[in-house]
Amino acid sequence: MASVDKEKIRTKGKPRTFYKGENPKKQKGRGKLYGIGIGPGDPELLTIKACKILKKVDKVFAPRSSILAESLALRIIGDTVPKSKIRTIVFPMTKEKKRLKEFWEKAAKKVYKELSRGNDIAFITIGDPFIYSTYMYLLRYIKKLDKSIDICTIPGVSVVNAIASLCNVPLVEAEEKFAVLPLPNKMSQLKNVLNQFDTVVLLKIGKGLKRLVRFLEKEGYDGSVYFAKRIGRPEEVVAHNLSQINLNKKTLGYMSTMIIRSKKRKKKMNPALPKM
Ligand SMILES: C[S@@+](CC[C@H](N)C(=O)[O-])C[C@H]1O[C@@H](n2cnc3c(N)ncnc32)[C@H](O)[C@@H]1O
């Protein structure tokens, strides 16, 4: 392939930039796919780059969990994009692999159809696109349809960063290590992680919140836990220790995140440092 260092090609009247390693002949006529991280909930955490791209693309695809469910992602981008440009894709909340595969394949075809028409597409995703997001699966299936699609991923503020800032709690300092994981099925698995890492950030807590809180109480973690639900949204809930978590609210675990500072960490901290 000839050197294509920043060669410009016209697609639907728009100049496109191609970088070394890309094949402009293959790309001709097809739109570009942007995977955009839109942050955890506060529209002010949308990056300038995300806004610029959302405004310039031809169509914006947003995930939602059912036809009736409102897309949280769409609430975050608000009026940044005119409604006429928005399309939603259903990604059901299921772990059934066969069913999910069907939805991902269907979604990829829907997005690819637009790209084939020469339209530039943005697929928005809550937080960062490469931390537990549907975007990663969509990418795989789009690449299966066409490996040569021009893809650009824009990072977003993850809920991992958002909860630390909301609670003004450091994730790691000096030689410390932190782990990000979905709430494990077995609390023994969480216990192992807490033994290996100084800070643990738990996502996908859902209906496991009560079980988690009981375990942490038993392990004596009361003062080292930070919990937040729907960060950045008007309905946000924050707890700065275990006893502030209201377990009477059945749905509290959904769209919630927790920081646990391991007991091991406390032992390692320089006692001369003032407490955070
Ligand atoms: C599929 S993951 C998405 C993570 C996202 N890509 C990120 O980088 O933040 C969904 C999980 O993220 C967490 N989450 C997402 N948005 C949140 C928010 N606004 N407040 C609290 N937790 C949130 C919840 O644990 C939820 O189960």
Strand content: 15-25%
As residue ranges, the low-confidence spans are 1-11
Identify the CATH homologous superfamily of the largest domain: Tetrapyrrole methylase, N-terminal domain
Count structural domains.
2
Determine the number of helices (DSSP H or I, runs of at least 4 residues): 9
> What is the count of β-strands?
12
Major β-sheet strand ordering: 5-4-6-3-7
Derived structural class: alpha/beta
Describe this structure in words.
- The structure is a single chain.
- By secondary structure, the protein is α/β, with parallel strands linked by helices.
- It folds into two domains: 22-157, Cobalt-precorrin-4 Transmethylase, domain 1; 160-268, 2-Layer Sandwich (Methyltransferase, Cobalt-precorrin-4 Transmethylase, Domain 2).
- Helices cover 31% and strands 22% of the residues.
- The protein has nine helices and twelve strands.
- The strands form three sheets. Strands 5-4-6-3-7 form a five-stranded parallel beta sheet, with helices on both faces.
- A hairpin with a 7-residue loop joins β10 (225-229) and β11 (237-239).
- The longest helix is centred in the middle third of the chain and has 20 residues, at 97-116.
- The chain is elongated.
- 33% of the residues are buried.
- Mean pLDDT is 88; it is low at 1-11.
- S-adenosylmethionine (SAM) binds next to β10 and β12.
